[in-house]
Amino acid sequence: xxxxxxxxxxxxxxxxxxxxxxxxxxxxxxxxxxxxxxxxxxxxxxxxxxxxxxxxxxxxxxxxxxxxxxxxxxxxxxxxxxxxxxxxxxxxxxxxxxxxxxxxxxxxxxxxxxxxxxxxxxxxxxxxxxxxxxxxxxxxxxxxxxxxxxxxxxxxxxxxxxxxxxxxxxxxxxxxxxxxxxxxxxxxxxxxxxxxxxxxxxxxxxxxxxxxxxxxxxxxxxxxxxxxxxxxxxxxxxxxxxxxxxxxxxxxxxxxxxxxxxxxxxxxxxxxxxxxxxxxxxxxxxxxxxxxxxxxxxxxxxxxxxxxxxxx
Length: 312
What we know:
single chain; 312 residues; alpha/beta; four-stranded antiparallel sheet; 32% helix
């Protein structure tokens, strides 16, 4: 049985005056899936998120969020199933963390007895009854995440979720996201912290000047754009000389320096390449495979190296 996507955009565009902010975007995100929305400032990410939330009406195209148009009168009832963490987290400084979450829980009709669990989840339980004026930037960010998690939403939209967080808190955020996915939630992340996202997302959507220029798994986008992986080998000088001799005519001598060889390899040829290395039966001290990161993929598409739109 096919599962309907929690977010579906068909030909969605938004024009402000004569300036297109989003251009004819087609996009679907399934339950249990985490999609990263990336792009330079002004690429259209915030506008797209606002349209999904029903805060901005598209100029053309159709949007379905959990089966309903965000502009439809009945969409208000679905908001209790949506969690949203905005890029700028603003709370009343004279309220405590508990008072703040209680306020949002009442808006969503969520039980107040679940708040302690949320405070524990974002590591704020000890500060729950302190005024927000005493909170650091990271604590406010974690409180914002707790607010987004109220009611165990089916759709979680997080704009720069790890902004201002230390490494431990960042890891905790992605643990929370994974738990939400396991429970079947759709997670949409907008972030500039691309190095964090590589192994934590299912697909990425790259926006450039309002255009959706790439959509797919990172591995597929690497292949589509032709970015090579690097295989780094380390060995004693005599072994390295044998490697250089074996690959003579494939790699120049410049690839073999001081006991280290860095050899580019097409992503879909990595397994065969590594099998060839094993068959040589040489005593290597180390092998490291580096695949192009999301940041490298993003930069390649942003430079226009991908040509036409790519959907992996």
